[in-house]
Amino acid sequence: MNYRHLPVTIGLVQRCALASAVGLAISSTAFAQTSGEGTVLEKTRIESSDQHSYKVDAINSPKRTQPILDTAATQYVLTEQVMDDQGVDSLQQALRNVPGITIAAGEGGTNPGDNLSIRGFDSSENIYTDGVRDTAVYERDIYNLEQLEVTLGPSSSYSGRGSTGGSVNLITKTAKFDTAHRGTVKAGTDDQLRATIDLNQQLSDTVAARVNLLLEDSGTPGRDVVENTSVGIAPSLAMQLGETTRLDLYGEYLSQDNIPDFGIPMFTNDSGEVYIPDGLADNFYGFANGRDTEEVDVASLSGKISHDISDNTRLTSLLKYAESDLFYVRTSPRLSRTDADNFVRRDDIKSKSQARDVVTSLTDITTHFTTGAVQHDLNIGVEFTQENLDQYVVSVTSGDYPVDTPLLNPNPNDTWLGDINEDKSQIRGSESETYAIYAFDTLTLNQYWELTGGVRLEQFDLTYSQNYTSSGRGGETPPFSLDSSDTMLSWSASTVFKPAKNGSIYFGVGTAFTPAGNGLTLSTTTADLDPEEALSYELGTKWDLFGSNLLASAAVFRTVRTNAQTTDADGEGIVLDGEQQVDGIEFGLTGNITDALQIQASAAIMDTEVTKSNDADEQGNDLVLTPENTLSIWANYTVTDSLKVAGGVQHMGEYSVSDSVTVPSYQVLQLMVSYQLNDAISFQLNGDNLTDERYISSSRPGGHAYVGDGRSVTLGANFSF
């Protein structure tokens, strides 16, 4: 933890605890006498009804009071079973199942991590864990995930600032009132070795404990030298405090020690398409022995209380503290200055050292009541968040080493004699505070019609400073301090028509706001800017089919960012004169077609355009990182009680990374075979990218390109005990 922020953090924790207590007191008096024929809330001790299903009926957030079938938004839920069957280990791999999502390459010294673009808009700041914004910079593992929830389209009223394209919510595993122990060990090509253990124990009628463990030491399929080493532990404790109250305490610590991948030099053909020259797909151009390194430490601790005030009213209050540390040094592969046809230079070094800490309090009250013939499902809540980010100076002295290495046959074992030093007295620091109140109400008028409205008032304050006198940002002269303060009122409204109990047709509209300091940085050109705004419309339909075992959905949408950042008329400053538009259509299928056949499938077609810009080279272009079409199909068939086979394909359409550079489309083929030997042991064989297609997964114009994983085959043994 960064102790410079400790007094402020303690103060915010006290305020968060006070807010939770006040919320409980208010709810007890305001809703204890709630009456009417509202829907009775389920008890707080809720466990999964079918852990092997691909389909779930509702998402985790208390803000979403309606089942997915009756929610006027495109939502995808990836269950633990889907991710297990596909053999995925990371968030990026799991998100291949969701259309319209791409991963951005690191710009300059920025760590790539889980830099998402959703429906054409940067969504790196819109990853959440259990509803709490998670801006830590690293590649997330899924060993401790119960399910993964993705909501597409502007959702600032639900998620907060940003969220123009959508948001991703990771639901962690917590203790259940059951006893189940299981583990997996798997090994595969490219030195892949991974083990996970999930131990859940009911200790009494009122106490349960759980711990999830991860050990991994793996190479990356199709990439030389790159290595991922992870150790993770995630304990949790559940306590039933009487019939109406449950307390969950849970935390996680994850440590990664990697040899990072910064790809290969970027090559483009005459049409501006990025391509991989023959013989380069596997190549690593850094130094494996000492210079290229990445160290990540992430820790969190959460407490959540759920209290049923009455049969119709529930309060949930979550208090979470999280911190993360990131350090890396990477070699950017750049063509040689003297012989670009044959050599790559290794003197373009990117480095970063940073520490984040965040404390968040979320308090929600959900209640059901009637006024006359109208059923209300109401959620109101408050949020307080403080986040601090410190970035330190890293100096890399080169020493005497071979700068150039052969393009076709680089030597990552060349001796590097330099030094790496951190100076934690030289800081670029960010301190932000978020205060928000929100309310959502769904009015069920009759069996055919539902109306939903929501509003969120959010105050976001940011101070960005630098205490040393070099490397200023945006023209300011260090040392400096910049401040911004934005008040944002976002809203959403929708109507749902139910022509049948198992179907819905909906229309929704919503707004999103992205302040200039959304990524916790500011410059003199952006500090005084108002937030960018977006408005989205969506018309869709959802149907529960085959006895409510399969959810089918389709939607058309339009998102318009009306005051996007662009250069001023002189090309020197930043103004809000731009406009961007995304039109699209999406389809989804999730669940069982028959008792033996399960499917998870989705597709999207998008048409994007920069409709207004002061930059003539940008006007009329497609939005970057926005594929024209994406497709994901995964089907699992139970042959016998012991044997299952599955297969799928992910297609990523062509997309641009600048006004003149595009990444071509690609397809990845997957297969799986599993065999249940007995009640305690099963084996699973997974093949990924079986055609060994070598493709560009992302690229930085004028710099480097990331090569997607090559063919891999893993064999896993699953144990229950």
SSE blueprint:
Elements: H1 6-31, E1 74-79, H2 80-86, H3 91-94, E2 101-103, E3 116-118, E4 121-122, E5 127-129, E6 132-133, E7 145-152, H4 156-159, E8 166-172, E9 180-188, E10 192-202, E11 207-220, E12 223-240, E13 245-258, E14 264-265, E15 267-268, E16 274-275, E17 293-310, E18 313-331, E19 334-335, E20 343-345, E21 349-371, E22 374-397, E23 404-406, E24 419-444, E25 449-466, E26 480-500, E27 503-514, E28 532-545, E29 550-567, E30 574-592, E31 597-612, E32 629-638, E33 643-652, E34 655-656, E35 662-663, E36 666-676, E37 681-688, E38 696-699, E39 704-707, E40 712-720
Q: If you had to describe this structure to a student in words, what would you say it looks like?
A:
This protein has 721 residues and is mainly β. The chain is 6% helix and 56% strand. The strands form seven sheets. It has a 22-stranded antiparallel β-barrel. The chain is globular, with a radius of gyration of 25 Å. The two termini are 38 Å apart.
